[in-house]
Amino acid sequence: MPEKFDVIVVGAGPGGAACANVCAKNGLKVLMVERGEYPGSKNVMGGILYRKQTEEIVPEFWKEAPIERPVVEQRFWMLEKESMVSMGYKGKEWAQEPYNNFTVLRAQFDQWFAQKAVEEGVLLINETVVTECIQEDGKVVGIRTDRPDGDIYADVVVLADGVNSLLAKSLGMRKPMQNEDVALCAMEVLNMPKGKINDRFGLEGNEGCSVEIFGDATKGELGTAFLYTNKDSINIGVGTTLSGMIRSKIKPYELLEYVKNHPMIRPYIHDGESAEYLAHLIPEGGYNAIPKLVGNGVLVIGDAAQLVNAIHREGSNMAMASGKMAAEAIVKAKQNKDFSEVGLDSYRTSIYDSFIGQDLKKYKDLTHTFENNPQYLNEYIPLMNRAASQFFTIDGTPKWDKQAKIMKSMTAGRGKFGVVKDIYQAWKVMK
Amino acid sequence: MHIVVCVKQVPDTKVIKVNPKTNTLDRSSAPAILNPYDAHAVEEAVRLKEQHGGKVTVLSMGPPQAVKAIKKCVEIGADEGVLISDRAFAGADTLATSYALTKAIEKIQKKEPISLVLCGKHAIDGDTGQVGPGIARRMEIPPITNVIKIENVDNKESKVEIRRKIENGYEIIQSQTPCLLTVEKEINEVAYSPMPNMIKAARYEPTVWTVADLDDVDKQQLGMKGSPTIVGKMWPPAKSEGAKLIEGDAKSQVKELVSAVLEKRELFAQKGGK
């Protein structure tokens, strides 16, 4: 008889490792299976790690985790072809404990984070693909792997197998993804000496900066670009919805090249030496795309459960938080010896009651609104740029006249009524 | 039969960078892996054990993190693993390494006699292929290199028949056991490890010995002190230059290529052997 575990976690990313960690801390016997050569070897994200949810798994993690830089400045750039409106916030309080968020390189961070779970007693198996969930009498009772003698059994299987989650699909827990519910992001890591990064971004010591870029970076399609500073490299990337990419016939690598050569971005990254090139899908369907989270003997967490807040580019934190909530539900189920859908249901309610459910609900119509109303990106960002240009250009025109002219140009395209409608609509989906 | 396999953790030379100033390997630039030839040696030992019964013990020398290479061997099917790890071993060349490993094998042997010692052909970071024969010499057992097949194992008569690769074919030789074999990649395909092995390896904690755990050690023969080898100079192989890209459609590309090749007279043997 093959060995039986309390919990099997499929996938050793932030969600899986957090879940395994908390399960093991509570005395459960946990097996975590990872398909990559090591945890993190297959994982991709822009590179921002949030303190709060990480800290809940490993207190004061910044003292030992392989972080790159604490982020002390967040910038937002609204891009036109040859101009931009920029805003942001920089605060020295973010440069000291307990910090706000960090830049990380996933290949290193995930390895460390999974190792913390191993230190709690989790058994980690790498280079192994889980091909299906073993079901008996309508219950998930284990996993089948691609290895000889590869069946393993457990009371609960946690699916943390990422954005595509074939396992959740094959269990019928989620529907196939729609093109507008998923973004394709291409990114590159560019090596650059620390001093040069600090000079270009106006940073001191190990301070980091994150830049979120809207507008022309995605050629008017719904999406964003980003620029994050690591210790001695820069992450630059861009993503748009798959539907947008198909509509505008842009290839992801062409878009990334376009971003890298944009006159507003190029000065920050030029002569960086390309170290890594990555691409990944991001589930951005939001609230309406959340699948069935709980089944008999099975839970879905993180990207596999589509738990990503595309607006605030939060994903890894939601993965970790959902992993923790799943673990807590499993501990409860173990106490009650009930691993059925009902016995594990506290996971579902915790997700919907937490910031994850609340935040995703808040923005639930936002993607579709933007997707169906391209004027937000195509008209208003260029408008902002023109307005700023007019207002700040000293050409002898009185400021009153300038303002009137700007107001007029604001409403020229869509009409006064159209602009009011757009503002109301934007407010409605963001409120 | 008890088989000891000597293995090494090496940087993956497929991705390693060479420091352009010193020409030394920048070991931090590549992940540490089990030397590929050694994986074949472990696989062969495990297959022999499956056929003839017995036990496979893996032995390695290296820094504490080299336990990872031993765990990998347990995935392949090794029963046990020993790492000898001590500051005193650091900086060892092949002479000092073979001495330290021999001392460890002697200790293993005291508990359970050994029928075979297997090694990979060479490590991919140093490419010397000296440690295996060095161990054999010190243990005073026959060294047999470039092994591509272990044909017959006769435990009763303490004999083994081996096929080894030579320049223009192979030779079949018979040896007494114990003996030491260094294996080529052709000897087998490393099997995809079964799940129970993976779980066993994930749990397994290799034995770690320091110098103090070994018996009758002459410390003068260890590490840097015991290493007479001096690396005089190192350089990467010269890059070939003068490559030319032929452009145009397929037809004109072929035409230009053929005439370029025909112009290279040195490529063709001339009459009279000139």
From TrEMBL, chain A:
<dbReference type="Pfam" id="PF12831">
    <property type="entry name" value="FAD_oxidored"/>
</dbReference>
<protein>
    <submittedName>
        <fullName>Nitrogen fixation protein FixC</fullName>
    </submittedName>
</protein>
<feature type="domain" description="FixC-like C-terminal">
    <location>
        <begin position="367"/>
        <end position="431"/>
    </location>
</feature>
<dbReference type="InterPro" id="IPR036188">
    <property type="entry name" value="FAD/NAD-bd_sf"/>
</dbReference>
<comment type="similarity">
    <text>Belongs to the ETF-QO/FixC family.</text>
</comment>
<dbReference type="GO" id="GO:0016491">
    <property type="term" value="F:oxidoreductase activity"/>
</dbReference>
<keyword id="KW-0285">Flavoprotein</keyword>
<dbReference type="InterPro" id="IPR059103">
    <property type="entry name" value="FixC-like_C"/>
</dbReference>
<dbReference type="Pfam" id="PF26311">
    <property type="entry name" value="ETF-QO_FixC_C"/>
</dbReference>
<dbReference type="InterPro" id="IPR039651">
    <property type="entry name" value="FixC-like"/>
</dbReference>
<keyword id="KW-0274">FAD</keyword>
<keyword id="KW-0560">Oxidoreductase</keyword>
From TrEMBL, chain B:
<dbReference type="InterPro" id="IPR014730">
    <property type="entry name" value="ETF_a/b_N"/>
</dbReference>
<feature type="domain" description="Electron transfer flavoprotein alpha/beta-subunit N-terminal">
    <location>
        <begin position="22"/>
        <end position="217"/>
    </location>
</feature>
<dbReference type="InterPro" id="IPR012255">
    <property type="entry name" value="ETF_b"/>
</dbReference>
<dbReference type="InterPro" id="IPR033948">
    <property type="entry name" value="ETF_beta_N"/>
</dbReference>
<dbReference type="Pfam" id="PF01012">
    <property type="entry name" value="ETF"/>
</dbReference>
<protein>
    <recommendedName>
        <fullName>Electron transfer flavoprotein small subunit</fullName>
    </recommendedName>
</protein>
<dbReference type="GO" id="GO:0009055">
    <property type="term" value="F:electron transfer activity"/>
</dbReference>
<dbReference type="InterPro" id="IPR014729">
    <property type="entry name" value="Rossmann-like_a/b/a_fold"/>
</dbReference>
